[in-house]
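Quick one, tokens below. Sequence please?
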């Protein structure tokens, strides 16, 4: 009797499990059909597949033999173009994107068989190279990145970071020749400095070289022209604004706030608002929105205003230092403008995914080696997915002066960026949301008044100093708020076992997002 009962129970359990598995399989098939039927969702999944290829390649972290990858990638691409089934096409596009992501990361390793800077580690040698990008001017030195590196014997692969004396001033495009000891960058406590430089193609460094010979560029360079114009604007700002306001406003507008005192930079770091001291995605968003609004209301009209605004956004991204956060915001602004030009409201989810793909195509090492890239995307994902949810939770907060919206945006961005902060820095500022809420509403006006002061200062430094008074007042408010909160003993806390908490919080946030995706609301983004 017991055996019959056991067999019956086992059969019933098996039948129940089969039905449950069949139900789950049907649900998965329906989910796949919805993805395949939706071009928007299909595009998003293909973008994720490319990022997945970069992730796997970064995890393996070894050079690849490119030819098989190109062969299979082209086969998948050709098959995707001719395959009749939409589901089959989708699978082939996913495989193609995955291989391209893997291949692109593999191309970031120094090529074998070609001499590179790493081979000169610890050796004194004669170097010649050309300055690329913006020169970082600090209090006691200038920091330049050299390309087209040559020794007396042979050219070398890789970029070289060189610190030279503060004077004479050098510019992008100048050629430097010198004797120096080549050093391979090493990690610093709490900061993978070597990986950060490697993400920019910099393989080695050199400090204060001997026998420095500077050869100014002879040909016209548009980038040099823009950077010289930027320096003129910074010089004008320094004439009409006293320190520390000039350094703070210059950081807001163009990035780079090296003139701020160490104590003040420490205050910004302790209260969790270091992103405010340099041009960031928030600044680019403000610039692009105000510029587009002004141009569309001008005599240019809608159609001509969009390409003009797009051109100015590209220039501003370059002038602001083209950091990961700035480039991310610039690409998103351009894609949003493109959607506006087509008369369509673009999906923020797809804009964000395409932006990540474009940036990782250009430099796949940003994903794991650039904290700015990670924080920028984490905060933006938080805004896209959680801002409206938090705003509904903060219904008790008045909407006066946009307080509720700012509070919701601050908590949304902080929620997603917390695991990144814990993993990379091991610290957390519990008062960061409050400080952000108090100072961020003033930033657009501070940028606006600072820009006016520069414009008037070109004509007259005396008149510019008068026009700059509102900027000085707003800057004083922000700096005092940061300083006062920075004095609090609990402003920033060192978290024990921070990386464990980072993984735990990331898992909790992922679970929370999955839970939200099953509770859609009309006004929310489809997760």
């Amino acid at each position: 009797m017991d055996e019959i009962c056991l067999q019956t129970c086992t059969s019933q359990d098996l039948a129940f499990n089969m039905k449950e598995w069949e139900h789950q399989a049907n649900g998965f098939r329906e989910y796949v059909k919805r993805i395949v039927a939706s071009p928007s969702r299909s595009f998003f999944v293909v973008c994720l597949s490319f990022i997945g290829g970069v992730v796997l390649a970064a995890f393996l972290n070894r050079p690849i033999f490119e030819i098989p990858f190109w062969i299979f990638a082209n086969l998948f691409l050709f098959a995707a173009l001719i395959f009749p089934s939409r589901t089959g096409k989708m699978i082939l596009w996913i495989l193609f994107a995955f291989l391209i992501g893997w291949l692109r990361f593999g191309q970031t390793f120094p090529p074998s068989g070609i001499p590179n800077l790493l081979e000169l580690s610890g050796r004194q040698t004669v170097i010649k190279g050309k300055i690329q990008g913006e020169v970082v001017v600090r209090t006691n030195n200038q920091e330049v990145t050299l390309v087209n590196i040559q020794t007396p014997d042979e050219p070398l692969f890789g970029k070289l970071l060189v610190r030279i004396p503060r004077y004479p001033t050098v510019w992008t495009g100048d050629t430097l020749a010198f004797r120096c000891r080549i050093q391979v960058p090493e990690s610093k406590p709490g900061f993978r400095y070597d990986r950060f430089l490697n993400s920019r193609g910099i393989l080695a460094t050199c400090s204060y070289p001997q026998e420095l010979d500077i050869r100014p560029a002879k040909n016209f360079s548009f980038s040099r022209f823009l950077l010289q114009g930027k320096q003129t604007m910074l010089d004008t700002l320094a004439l009409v604004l006293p320190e520390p306001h000039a350094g703070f406003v210059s950081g807001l507008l163009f990035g780079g706030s090296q003139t701020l005192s160490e104590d003040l930079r420490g205050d910004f770091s302790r209260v969790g608002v270091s992103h405010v001291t340099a041009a960031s995605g928030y600044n680019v968003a403000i610039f692009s929105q105000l510029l587009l609004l002004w141009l569309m209301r001008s005599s240019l009209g809608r159609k001509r205003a969009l390409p003009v605004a797009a051109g100015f956004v590209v220039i501003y991204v370059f002038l602001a230092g083209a950091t990961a956060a700035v480039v991310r915001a610039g690409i998103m602004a351009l894609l949003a403008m493109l959607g506006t030009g087509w008369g369509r409201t673009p999906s923020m989810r797809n804009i964000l995914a395409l932006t990540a793909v474009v940036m990782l195509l250009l430099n796949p090492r940003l994903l794991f080696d650039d904290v700015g890239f990670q924080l920028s995307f984490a905060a933006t994902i938080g805004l896209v997915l959680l801002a409206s949810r938090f705003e509904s939770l903060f219904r008790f907060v008045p909407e006066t002066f946009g307080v509720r919206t700012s509070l919701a945006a601050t908590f949304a961005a902080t929620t997603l960026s917390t695991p990144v902060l814990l993993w990379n820095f091991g610290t957390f500022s519990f008062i960061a949301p409050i400080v952000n809420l108090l100072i961020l509403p003033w930033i657009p006006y501070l940028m606006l008044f600072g820009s006016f002061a520069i414009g008037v200062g070109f004509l007259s430094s005396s008149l510019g100093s008068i026009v700059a008074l509102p900027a000085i007042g707003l800057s004083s408010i922000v700096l005092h708020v940061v300083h006062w909160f920075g004095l609090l003993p609990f402003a920033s806390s060192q978290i024990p076992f921070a990386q464990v908490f980072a993984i735990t919080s990331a898992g909790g946030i992922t679970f929370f997002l999955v839970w939200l995706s099953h509770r859609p609301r009309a006004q929310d983004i489809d997760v």
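The chain has a mean pLDDT of 79. The longest strand covers residues 124-137.
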